[in-house]
Specification:
It is built from 12 helices and no strands. By secondary structure, it is mainly α. It is globular and about 50 Å long.
Length: 311
């Protein structure tokens, strides 16, 4: 990914701006849990309904893209992105499309709402062919995405952003599986929880470079509340919990032993944790740890899916 921030000069075409403002590389964080849901569907003995699977994947990606845009919108309103001088683009400090004059505030808001309307249309169609419980699951996903940064709830400012991210991304495979089977399988939520925790860890490590700006803007997440010295241990603890849960699920026969492939992601997680523990007070040096965190969450999710498919 380029380290050049967006500008009108670099992005002359309007549709190019709209696409890149959604931060496409980071949409993999939502696509991979969706694939985990499909792998679980195959492992549990069901055939894949490919039109429903493609529609569900598109809905999930549009939902996440809309969240990215609305988060940029609300962070522009509260001023945190404008205040951020220690950002590590493209990982932290927002997309910079508003701050650099590439998109306007209203344009960003409308684009985010438009993507959520696409999500709603696809969700209504999917609920019609699968089951009405999908309405509840979709509404919960939209609520978490809105409440994460929008007033009055602003979960990311109240120490609840990490929990909402873990829950939201943990529900993605559950929703995908439901579109295929009309069944809610609690084993799948258990399987997805470690991936949700690793996604929350990405949020945590991204907060280190953003901490000073976030604190000035009133975003009191856990890195602000604990301070970076103590919060570095929170990152390590969340990662350790994610992998410990996978071992537990296998030990009590919730998941097959082949899903222990997901433990291979311990390596990048450990290196990232050690890097953060060493450089917690130097945000400019944290880009390698952020990249390893992304590698860990994507790698873990895909390896877990592979473990289900090779049984």
């Amino acid at each position: 990914m380029s380290t050049l921030e967006p500008s009108i000069e670099l992005l002359g075409h309007r549709w190019q701006r709209y696409l890149l403002a959604t931060r496409p590389p980071f949409l993999l964080a939502a696509a991979c849990p969706a694939l985990l849901g499909l792998a679980f569907t195959v492992w549990s003995g069901h055939a894949i309904d490919w039109p429903a699977a493609v529609a569900a994947l598109l809905a999930i990606v549009c939902l996440h893209a809309g969240v990215n845009l609305l988060n940029d919108y609300f962070d522009a309103l509260n001023g945190t992105d404008a205040l951020n001088e220690e950002r590590l683009y493209p990982f932290t400090g927002g997309s910079r499309f508003i701050q650099n004059g590439v998109l306007g505030l209203r344009e960003t808001l409308l684009l985010g709402i438009g993507l959520w309307l696409v999500t709603a249309v696809l969700g209504i169609w999917l609920a019609g062919i699968s089951g009405p419980a999908l309405y509840l699951l979709g509404a919960l996903g939209l609520f978490i995405g809105w409440a994460y940064s929008a007033p009055p709830l602003r979960l990311n400012s109240r120490g609840l952003g990490e929990l909402s991210v873990a829950l939201g991304f943990g529900l993605i495979p559950v929703g995908m599986h439901y579109t295929q089977t009309t069944d809610f399988d609690l084993r799948l939520f258990a399987a997805a929880l470690p991936a949700g925790l690793l996604t929350a860890n990405l949020l945590i490590i991204n907060q280190f470079p953003d901490r000073r700006a976030d604190e000035q803007a009133g975003k009191h997440h856990w890195v602000v509340r604990l301070g970076p010295r103590r919060a570095r241990w929170m990152y390590a603890a969340v990662g350790a919990l994610a992998y410990a849960l996978l071992v537990l699920w296998v030990a009590i026969d919730i998941l097959p032993a082949t899903t222990l492939l997901g433990l291979l992601a311990v390596a990048p997680s450990t290196v990232a944790a050690l890097h953060l523990i060493r450089h917690w007070d130097r945000p400019a040096l944290l880009a390698p740890a952020i990249k390893l965190t992304i590698l860990a969450l994507l790698g873990h999710t895909l390896l877990l899916a592979l473990g289900l498919l090779v049984v």
